[in-house]
Design goal:
The protein has 590 residues and is mainly alpha-helical. Helix content is 69%, strand content 0%. It has 29 helices and no strands.
Length: 590
């Protein structure tokens, strides 16, 4: 710093002398320069040390003032919310430990305490769902309801491995853009008719959301839908809103159709294993057989509603131009080597999942290969090789040109960086939904504790006293869960209601598996609020749909879904389930 000062002074002096001027305030400029130059290195170091101490003191003061700064309103509310929930949790424990719900079931009140505490923290989302999912493994042993070892065995089961395989194939599809190619192909084949084009939008989203994240499906569909909507004049605002909401709903509806379509389905499979450990396995094919027709009816209803309201019976004819879609498809170029590998892997996985268990006279390939395999193991067997299969980047140039073609070997993943394998762990761990596995485990532990404590049986006895037949019970369950899932996460809703619904149905003489499936399907019908699901938030984020409009149209779809379920569950589902799940006995935990 001293050297810099002397250099600056010399420059100023030279400029002043050249201009014939004197420097004001510096009568002895040369003396000042000399004095500055003669300062010893020791003095300079001492000054630096003093300045460092001053800077350190200033930083400490800044940190101290930051720590003492008043909390924002949002931070203050979050802090008080957690404190309030902790106080209420303590009161719940105190009350439930002081009162016996049932003398014959002394642990029921303790099971109720855990259920209320976990449900309260889940609903409030004061803590991440991942953290709240660990509450049961702390509370149940503390209240002598279940041992940690037994709970740990329920925490990570076959369903978790099923979803790990589903995540791997879904991430591979997203990484190499296969979902975008599928969407463009479906839309381009739909033609120039508006009703067919809307059907193409909904069909593409519906099909993809069976295998990859509902939110990711909605996100990748938005650019295609936007290129269609920008062609329309401003007077078609209502039609634009309807199409956008229908796309979001299609993503949620498609997730209902397969076990890996949405995490809520995984919660059902976990609860089934906990409640009936010795019952016939609820296979991938069986779940899809029960859920796919319902999903198809719902997406068909959405398409018919949009077309009847805005296309078929509208006075004004909507004219569209598909050139934009064709251009988008041409820009994708030929299908890359990596896309081909992922597509073949997906097709193989679907075939193996569907044909593993017996289908009619076909005994299933597991019977002659490995009977102990389940859907989770099959998923990993097919998807783990994706971490080993190299990308075209590592092939010799001769192989790329002659075997695949240069155009098929020039694609980069969505990250824009060259990849070594079809799937790389560094990319997978960024997009992997770890919290879902924790919620699976928390739901399974909650189901085990609720049944083993006798709470589920006690609640079922109280609900069984409510009058009405099976249709009234279906309508009541559908309405309560459809409304609850708008404000509570889908997985939490199923984790809370699934076991209780099963126990109540069994006590009333209804098919418990059938009613658990009803609860599972209803938990995915979050169509009203922007915050109710990921696809809703994606659609609302476009800024084209007011909350009031979304609530009104979503409420109509909720009521329509309840009516469909009132006919589907008692009339169609029994034939799809077959007789293997009619007499499973009272739900128990082992």
């Amino acid at each position: 710093r001293q050297v810099g000062m002397s250099s600056a002074l010399r420059e100023q002096a030279a400029e002043a002398q050249g201009a014939g001027l004197e420097m004001p305030g510096t009568p002895d400029l040369e003396s000042a320069i000399t004095t500055t130059d003669d300062k010893s290195a020791t003095q300079v170091e001492e000054e630096k040390g003093g300045q460092g101490e001053k800077q350190g003191e200033q930083q400490k003061k800044a940190i101290s003032s930051h720590d003492l700064a008043p909390l924002t309103v949002k931070e203050s509310l979050a802090y008080h919310k957690k404190a309030f929930l902790m106080l209420v949790s303590a009161l719940i424990l105190l009350v439930c430990l002081s009162v016996d719900l049932d003398v014959q079931r002394p642990l029921a009140s303790r099971g109720l305490a855990v259920l209320l505490i976990v449900a309260m923290w889940w609903i409030s989302e004061a803590l991440p769902l991942t953290i709240t999912s660990l509450f049961p493994i702390c509370l149940y042993p503390m209240l002598a309801v279940a041992s940690p070892g037994v709970l740990a065995s329920k925490f990570f089961g076959g369903t978790s491995f099923l979803f790990i395989g589903g995540f791997f194939i879904g991430l591979a599809i997203e990484r190499w853009g296969l979902h975008t190619r599928i969407i463009c192909a479906v839309v381009c084949y739909a033609g120039k008719r508006v009703d067919c084009l809307v059907g193409g939008f909904l069909g593409a989203v519906w099909l993809l959301s069976m295998w990859i994240s509902n939110t990711a499906t909605a996100v990748c569909m938005m650019p295609v839908v936007h290129s269609f909507l920008v062609q329309l004049p401003r007077e078609y605002t209502s039609f634009k809103s309807a199409v956008l909401m229908a796309v979001g709903w299609a993503a949620s509806i498609g997730g209902i159709a397969t076990p890996v379509g949405t995490p809520t389905n995984g919660v059902f499979l976990d609860q089934y294993l906990v409640l009936w450990p010795d019952a016939p396995a609820f296979t991938f094919a069986k779940f899809t057989l029960c859920a796919l027709p319902l999903s198809f009816l719902l997406i068909l209803g959405v398409w018919l509603a949009v077309c009847c309201r805005y296309v078929w019976f509208s006075k004004e004819r909507i004219v569209i131009d598909t050139a934009g879609f064709q251009k988008m498809r041409q820009e994708l170029g030929p299908m890359s080597y990596e896309e081909i590998v992922v597509a073949l892997d997906l097709v193989l996985l679907i075939l193996l999942w569907f044909t593993a268990a017996p289908i009619g006279a076909f005994p299933g390939w597991k019977a002659s290969v490995a009977e102990n395999l389940n859907s989770g193991a099959i998923g990993l067997i097919v998807t783990l090789p994706l971490f080993v299969i190299p990308t075209s980047h590592w092939f010799p140039e001769v192989v790329r040109q002659r075997l695949f073609g240069e155009k098929r070997c020039s694609k980069l993943p969505q990250s824009g960086k060259a990849a070594e394998h079809i799937l790389d762990w560094d990319d997978v761990k960024k997009g992997f939904a770890w919290e879902i596995l924790f919620v699976f485990g928390g739901g399974a532990m909650l189901a085990f504790g609720t049944t083993s404590s006798g709470l589920a049986a006690w609640v079922a006895e109280r609900l069984a006293e409510v009058g009405g037949g099976e249709l009234v019970f279906i309508l009541l369950v559908s309405f309560v869960i459809c409304m609850t899932t708008e404000v509570v996460s889908n997985m939490s809703t199923m984790a809370i209601f699934g076991v209780i619904i099963a126990a109540t149905a069994d006590l009333k003489g209804y098919n418990a598996v059938q009613m658990m499936l009803l609860a599972c399907f209803c938990s995915s019908t979050s169509f009203m609020l922007p915050t109710a699901s990921g696809p809703n938030m994606v659609v609302y984020g476009t800024g084209l749909i007011p909350v009031k409009t979304m609530v009104q149209m979503g409420l109509l779809l909720n009521f329509g879904t309840i009516i469909v379920l009132a006919f589907y569950v008692p009339l169609i589902m029994p034939a799809l389930l077959g007789g293997d799940y009619d007499n499973l006995g009272t739900p128990v935990s082992s």
